[in-house]
Amino acid sequence: EAARIAMTRYMKRAGNVWIRIFPHMAYTKKPLEVRMGGGKGSPEGFVAVVKKGTIMFEVGGIDEKTAREALRLAAHKLPVTTKFVKKVVKDNG
């Protein structure tokens, strides 16, 4: 969410941002100062498992320079190393 906000603020609401991952796995946590046992804890939040090479964000409708800077700002919010990938559209003519 922090990465998305950083991108949209830099882009000033121009262009489109698509988030390609979705946090659909719940993770659980037991309350503080609870003894061992007693079953599994209640859901604490949701996470997304992201493997190496997964495209996380797509940006469209803006020039490449603006897109690179917006994605660079978003990358600073993420705990992983990132890479900018440009989609090449072939013309059949």
Structure description:
Strands 1-4 form a two-stranded antiparallel sheet. It has a two-stranded antiparallel sheet with strand order 2-3. The chain is elongated, with a radius of gyration of 18 Å. Helix 1 packs antiparallel against helix 2. The mean pLDDT is 85. The chain has one domain: Ribosomal protein L16/L10 (Aldehyde Oxidoreductase, domain 3), CATH 3.90.1170.10. 6% of the residues are buried. The longest helix is centred in the C-terminal third of the chain and has 12 residues. It starts with a helix and ends in an 18-residue tail after the last helix. Helix content is 24%, strand content 20%.
Q: Please name the fourth-level CATH homologous superfamily.
A: Ribosomal protein L16/L10
**Helix-strand string:** HEEEEH
Q: What is the gyration radius calculated from CA atoms? A: 18 Å
**Widest sheet: strand order?**
1-4
What is the 3D shape? elongated
Number of helical runs?
2
What number is the mean pLDDT? 85
CATH topology-level fold name: Aldehyde Oxidoreductase, domain 3
Low-confidence spans: pLDDT under 50, at least 5 residues? none
What structural class do helix, strand and pairing data support?
Answer: alpha+beta
The tally of domains stands at 1
Give a short account of the largest sheet.
Answer: 2 strands, antiparallel
Approximately how much helix is present in the residues?
10-25%
Top-tier CATH class: Alpha Beta
What separation lies between the terminal Cα atoms? 40 Å
Question: What is the total tally of β strands?
Answer: 4
Q: Any guess at the CATH architecture?
A: Alpha-Beta Complex
Strand content: 15-25%
